[in-house]
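Researcher: For the annotation table, I need C-alpha cells for Riboflavin biosynthesis protein. Please keep the output clean. Sequence:
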Amino acid sequence: MKIITDLSHYRKMEYPNLVLALGNFDGFHRGHQEIVRFVTDEARKIKGTAAVLTFKQHPRRVLAHGDAPTILTSMMHKLYLLHQASIELCFLLDFSAEFARTGADEFVRHVLMGSLGVKEVCLGFNAHFGNDRRGNAAFMKPYAAKGDFKFHEIKSVMVGSEVASSTLIRKVIQQGDLGKAQMLLGKPYSFFGEAVSGHGRGKMLGYPTANLDTHSETMPPEGIYAVWIRVIDCEMVESSAGWHDFRVNKTGKLLSGVMYYGKCPTFEKDGKPVPEVHILDYHDELKGALVEVTVGACIRGERTFTDQESLCEQIEKDVTIAKKWLDEHPIFRIS
C-alpha cells in the first residue's frame, strides 16, 4: 500500500480512475469494512485505484480541547487493517487547526477535485466534513449530478437494532461487553502495543510478562483476560518526498496468553493502569516488538492481595482458567 502524506507530491494523472473513501476508520468496524469493500470492488470494475483519505490525528482530538474520545485503533493498526483490506493508496493527512478551518465546498473543489482528481467518492451514511460540517451525502449529490465525479453513500450496518459505530464500540469495550464489541467489529477487539521493560514482577512471581506501550487508548475494565497475541512486523518506509510504502514484513504465529490490565494495587497505591501479557509456553524475547493483542474473555476483575503468596496462588488459577477458555474458543477471522 502506498501512503501519501503531502498532496503537493501527488500526480493525479498517474491515477485517472481514483475511487476514494473518506473517513477516520477508527476501529475499522463492520460499517468501515463495508465502505472499503465497496471501494475495492468498484475500483476493480473500472480498472481503477482503491484509495482512502484519512488523518493521522482523530479530528475531535484537535477540535475538542480536552473532551476528545479515546482511540480504538492507532495509526499503525489502522494502516495495517487498510493494507489487509486491499487498499492500494492511502492519503494520510495531518488534521491541524488550520486544516480544520477548511470549508466543505473548498475541500471538495480544491482537494477532491483539484489535487486528487477523484473519479468516484464514497462516504458513510452519517459522515460529515468541513469546518461547518456541511459536507455529507446531501452536500455531495449535486456535484455528482453535474458529472464532477460519481458519488456513493454507503448505508449503515445494523447489528440487531443498533448501528455499528466507533462511539458505540468504545462504550461497550469500556463497559467490558466484549461479545457485543465483537459483533459490532466483525471480529474480536484487538489493539497494538510495543513490548517494553517493566518492573520484572511477573518474572519474580514465576510468570514473566511483557509490558505494553499501547498505541490505542480504549481498554476494557481493569482485570485479567484470556488473550491471543502475535508479533506484527510492519513499517512505513519513505520512498520519495511525500510518499511512503507500508510494508508488512512478517506476521507472527498466533499465541495464547493472559493479560493483566491494572494498577498493580498489591504493590503500588497510585499506579497508572498498564496492560502486560504472559504468553503461555513461550520463552523468546519480546522487548521492542510490535504486538497485536486480541482480547478474548475476562477471567476476573482487579483485586488487591494481602501478600505475595496469595497473589501467586491466584495467578496460577487465572492461568489455568484462561488456558481452558482459550482451548475451548479457537479464534476466528483475524485479519
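Researcher: And a one-line annotation?
Model: The chain has two domains: 2-6+14-159, 187-235+248-328.
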